[in-house]
Amino acid sequence: MRYTKLPGTSIDVSKICLGTMTWGEQNTEAEGHAQLDYAIEQGVNFIDTAELYSVPARAETYGSTERIIG
Hints:
Layout: E1 3-5, E2 12-14, E3 17-19, H1 29-41, E4 46-48, H2 64-69
Parallel strand pairs: 3-4
Antiparallel strand pairs: 1-2
């Protein structure tokens, strides 16, 4: 894995980011865990989350991505 150092810090961030927008809507919790496990095994330490995930935004799945990651 290649990393980039965040300017002004000693933090190395992977060049590849794991997107999580489908977790809780198009992917199950188990699939999200499997994807996260694989990414970490490959050296990924950059995970994209957002307040509106999962996509498409629905009241029933709002916050699912954060719950699965947590």
